[in-house]
Amino acid sequence: MRLPANLRRNIRLMRIGHILATHGMAALAVRLRLFYPYVWLVQLFRGDELPKDLGTQIRLVLEQLGPTFIKFGQMLSTRVDLLPLDVALELKKLQDDVPPESFEKVRRVIEQSFKQPLTGDDGVYAAFDETPVAAASIAQVHFAELKDGRKVAVKVRRDHISRTIESDLAILKLLAGLFHRYFPEYHRLKAPQVIEEFATTIRGELNLRAEAAHASRFGENFAEVEGVRVPEVMWDYTHTEVLTTERISGTPIDEREKLEAAGHDCLKLCERAATQFFRMVFTDGYFHADMHPGNIFVGDNGDIIFIDFGIVGRLDIKSRRYIAGMLLAFLQEDYRRAAEVHVEAGYVPAETDISAFEDALREIAVPIFNRPLADISIAELLLSMFAVTERFKMETQPQLLLLQKTMVVIEGVARELADQANIWMLARPMITEWMARHMGPVGKAEALGEEIRGQLYNWMQLPAKVDGVLSRIEQGEVSFNNEPSRFSVVAGAMLSAAGGGGLVWSAVNDGGTGLLLLSATVMGLGFVLTMSRG
């Protein structure tokens, strides 16, 4: 018999209150009004406001609360703009380690998805291994064989995991609302928005068809790259809850002794992995955001094989140019330029005190770049930078935080392979080529062209926008004391667009001063007509 939803929620909240109270955070539970009498008594007898090892206790609390909360903690570990650095580093230790689902539940999920038996004459697969080869909180992987003899890996979502996660998300949203209400001094943390961001991410991981699309796109991006492979997706055997791909054979990239015994050059493997990561970041703007060692294999022929594309990061060209410009300034020890790059990208307010910002960046960068080359960590630089830029009102950039998290992992992988490896230096030829192309004169011209095209598009949309406003006026949704002349407004909008287009064309094609003045005059006349009242 299933308990009513409200009762289950209240029992869950009571358990959360108990766990907080018994991990030195009774004061937090009291302020959140969780199981108030009990946690108040615990706080009274314990007498501590917060434990000294706060990060450790938060990690232990999340581990006890289960997979959804563990994943939330893993996401928070990247948010050094929200958490103290020591707490964020402690949360990076959270492990998504759960026992596998029973085979009967796996069978039920597959048979319900495809409306066929698992195996047999009318079955989905010719053979299916009951023992999973990997298990995580959302899904687990089994080996199988198709009827044409192809060997495949089948990722199966856990039975009812969607319902469990939605229930936990409801609890997290409630807790975020309570935190926002009873801790007004921490409104800057934007707890409800953080939960919404997390909910979007974890719901995306639930859709294995979306993961298949990611894998397919990575396969296309790497199609012409030698020495890199992505398992082929078997679309006829893929569903929202089931993902079937080509079975790969290889050695996990962190098993150095096995790789060396097989004759692989670990430094070259490290260089190839680093180069491909930065190729994803800078060339494609689309990167694997879960690159732990279990998701990177080395084939017998030395190919790097990427698997598991549940989490991906996306960077538009503006973000890529920002990252390249910022890192180049740091590597050249030009901290003023590093500060200016942030302002130019619009990540910090234009009125920011550049001198103070320069000092703050120098403070975090000098200790890192004073180390031996092998110990320089770009991921640590980004981590520290995101922590300090909050003081200068830098808006949160989720895509950059995801990049920083991935860089921490890939740097760890590199050091497992080669003790003295520095992924930035290993990938330097590819990055230098990209920077020369996109940060040099050609790249700057392209950036200007993109900006001009954007402005021109906005001008071209102006008549339609004005016409929409006029329609609202005619319908009585907007009123003026003196109703404008429709003809003058529309004509003004057209002249403004024409003048703006002339200015853009003149700037791009060096049309001369006369044409620039004429275009400016036409655009000015258009503004006058548009703003006139008949």
Question: How would you characterize this protein structure?
Answer:
The protein is α+β, with helices and mostly antiparallel strands and 534 residues long. The protein folds into four domains: 5-96 and 164-200, no CATH class; 97-163 and 201-247, Phosphorylase Kinase, domain 1, CATH 3.30.200.20; 250-462, no CATH class; 485-533. The protein is 59% helix and 7% strand. The chain has 22 helices and eleven strands. Strands 1, 2, 3, 4 and 6 form a five-stranded antiparallel sheet that branches. Strands 5-10-9-7 form a four-stranded mixed sheet, covered by helices on one side. A two-stranded antiparallel ribbon has the order 8-11. A hairpin with a 3-residue loop joins strand 2 and strand 3. The radius of gyration is 28 Å and the shape is globular. Mean pLDDT is 80; it is low at 38-45.
Indicate the structural class: alpha+beta
Rg for CA atoms: 28 Å
Show unreliable segments: 38-45
**Average pLDDT over all residues:** 80
Reported for the largest beta sheet, the result is:
5 strands, antiparallel
Helix content: 55-70%
Organism: Mariprofundus micogutta
Protein name: Ubiquinone biosynthesis protein
Pathway: Cofactor biosynthesis; ubiquinone biosynthesis [regulation]
Family: Belongs to the protein kinase superfamily. ADCK protein kinase family.
